[in-house]
Design brief:
- The chain has a domain of 131 residues: Thiolase/Chalcone synthase (Peroxisomal Thiolase, Chain A, domain 1, 3-Layer(aba) Sandwich).
- The protein is of the alpha/beta class and 388 residues long.
- Helix 2 packs across helix 13 and helix 6 packs across helix 10.
- The chain is globular.
């Protein structure tokens, strides 16, 4: 145990046309400090998760956190990026600073403003998180990348359209209870299962309800070393934090096995001295419904090729044996890239301290988080437990 989450904030995700990246950062930073009952002068180091990639013109954003309070001036601030795992990369940066005894208190902010670009340019920007030398020509952008993954899985294990629709329906049902979610509407299984004018095919077997939402938003957490955290009002400790990176080209991997996800979960659970069955909930990276299905298998919830059982038999429902994405996940919550991993950590901390409102899993004490960059290239797993 090296660090704890001692405060957090989460802005509503959605299309915030009137907001700038700067205003989102400032609001999230100040709210997290207030939640931790700290001032800017108490913070030793700052990490900002911001993918950008051309979403907004302002590309140098680390010091925008200083706009939140003049007392941040001359604090070290670093922007971190690792594709869609950018938020967790920033969190892990804070953990490393504390483990190295370079800081006692760290502020981590995750942010993204995606909606300033028109739709086609958003797709082009997202595709930069693939291996362009081989994958740039894939039709449908990043949805096309995951459509290829889905088609490969279907060829190996049979058509899983029922399971994908069940995952979408589950997460949208859970999202109704999430006050920060972009879409708070129970779409129902039948709507998610059948193509229609409102739910057309986007790429391959993936329909609109299989794809996470383009979103703006920010979230923040305050990290503290354990000794400092024990004197604070609340503390959620990292039992483990693991990162692995796999080859970027999909051609160098068995893409339907999500081996990086498997390796990260194995390392984290070993380090935490836990089994997957010890966890009370998981927040996982459902950028597309096929990703959540493959993550069931990679985390060890089912055998390979059997991931559909987990959702169709209700294992991952809010009342199931291992609730997955009780927040509604990226499907309902939205996926402002740099904010996503920080959001996952904040939401898990809410669960473990009994502050998740209508999302609450009763008596939750242990939570797992999986945040993925690219097509299972950068994999981050955190295991959290309430300390106080």
């Amino acid at each position: 145990m090296t660090a704890c989450i001692v405060g957090w904030s989460h802005l509503p995700f959605g299309k915030h046309e009137a907001r700038s990246v700067e205003s989102l950062i400032v609001e999230a930073a100040n709210a997290a400090l207030a939640d931790a009952e700290l001032g800017a002068a108490d913070i030793d180091e700052i990490f900002l998760g911001h993918f950008n990639g051309g979403f907004v013109r302002q590309d140098f954003t680390a010091s925008l956190v200083l706009q939140a309070d003049p007392a941040f001036r001359f604090k070290p601030a670093t922007r971190v990026e690792n594709a869609c795992a950018t938020g967790s990369a920033a969190v892990h940066g804070g953990l490393h600073a504390i483990a190295a005894r370079k800081a006692r208190l760290v502020l981590v902010v995750g942010v993204e403003k995606m909606t300033e670009l028109p739709g086609p340019q958003i797709g082009e920007t997202l595709l930069k998180a693939s291996y362009l030398a081989e994958e740039e020509g894939i039709e449908g952008g990043f949805a096309g990348v995951f459509a290829q993954i889905a088609q490969s899985y279907f060829q190996r294990h049979g058509d899983q359209s029922d399971a994908l629709a069940a995952i979408a329906a589950k997460n949208h049902r859970n999202g109704v209870a999430n006050p920060y979610a972009q879409m708070r509407k129970d779409l129902g299984y039948e709507f998610c299962r059948h193509p229609s004018d409102k739910n057309p095919f986007v790429a391959g077997p993936l329909k609109r309800t299989d794809c996470s939402l383009v979103s703006d938003g920010a979230a923040a957490v305050v990290l503290a070393d354990v000794e400092t955290a024990l004197a604070m009002r609340k503390a959620v400790v990292f039992r483990a934090a693991a990162q692995v990176n796999d080859f970027l080209p999909m051609s160098r991997r068995d893409i339907v096995r999500f081996e990086g996800c498997r390796a990260a979960w194995g390392k984290a659970l070993t380090d935490a001295r836990l089994q997957l069955t010890d966890l009370d909930l998981v927040e996982t990276h459902d950028c597309f419904t096929i990703a959540e299905l493959l993550e069931y298998e990679a985390m060890g919830l089912t055998e390979e090729g059997q991931g559909a059982r987990a959702v169709l038999e209700g294992w991952t429902a809010k009342e199931g044996r291992l609730p997955v994405n009780p927040s509604g996940g990226l499907k309902a919550k939205g996926h402002p890239i740099g904010a996503t991993g920080v959001s996952m950590h904040a939401l898990a901390a809410m669960q473990l301290t009994g502050n998740a409102g209508e999302m609450q899993i009763p008596d939750a004490t242990l939570a797992g988080i999986y945040n993925m960059g690219g097509a299972c290239v950068a994999s981050y797993v955190s295991v959290l437990e309430r300390l106080r």
